[in-house]
Amino acid sequence: MIVLAGTIGAGKTSLTTLLAQHLNSKAFYESVDDNPVLPYFYQDPKKYAFLLQIYFLNKRMAQLKAADRVPNSVMDRSIFEDSLLFHLNADLGRATETEVAVYDSLLNNMLQELPQQDYHKRPELLIHINISFATMLNRIKKRNRPYEQITQDASLYDYYQTLNQRYSQWYENYHESPKIQIDGDQLDFVTDELARKRVLELVDQKLNTLHQTTAVAGNQQ
Ligand SMILES: Nc1ncnc2c1ncn2[C@@H]1O[C@H](COP(=O)(O)OP(=O)(O)OP(=O)(O)O)[C@@H](O)[C@H]1O
């Protein structure tokens, strides 16, 4: 299982599609437009932050179980980032300490579920698409989901900025699996054919290295 990571508008969904095609495998998407809680969350984050996380956690666990059965499956967001987003929301006063404690413990419990398959919960590779704050704002504007627009709610500017900053730190501290970072400002794999090729090359190289390491480890046993 390969998982994509990155802030809002980083291009996770698009790269998931590209990679699944490239690897001749299956893509697993978190559908955003039919998320019943998201518009409410943006309207009243304090009231709906906890419910939104429970919604995402439930969906992602189901997705993980389905993706686990497919070789080389590609997922459009990692379960680990939900925690990053929830902790940011909690720090902004949108969730109580108790809600955070309950969420953290539930996440932990769920990740330990099916212990015989525990290693499958850790992806083979995490791909972080790193974009600057300016690119993030452009993409959000261009995509035009009403509830994400800063013109609707000026406080979103700070939320997005902090989220973008926390992602860099989060990636540095991520050690659940092998990882690779793609420069999403430089490599616009959605519109630029050459960039697309380069990104797929980078991923192939990393996967080859990982497969070689696994083969060597296997031979030594
Ligand atoms: N765990 C979470 N907590 C709060 N909001 C979340 C969480 N996960 C996703 N979101 C929200 O859901 C929406 C979709 O986010 P996400 O980054 O997954 O997809 P995206 O914006 O389509 O990204 P991409 O363009 O990279 O595919 C955003 O408004 C984001 O803020």
UniProtKB/TrEMBL annotation:
Keywords: Kinase, Transferase
Annotated GO MF terms: kinase activity
CDD domains, per the entry: dNK
Domain of life: Bacteria
SUPFAM superfamilies, A to Z: P-loop containing nucleoside triphosphate hydrolases (SSF52540)
Domain Deoxynucleoside kinase: 2-205
Homology family: Belongs to the DCK/DGK family.
Protein name: Deoxynucleoside kinase
Organism placement in taxonomy: Bacteria, Bacillati, Bacillota, Bacilli, Lactobacillales
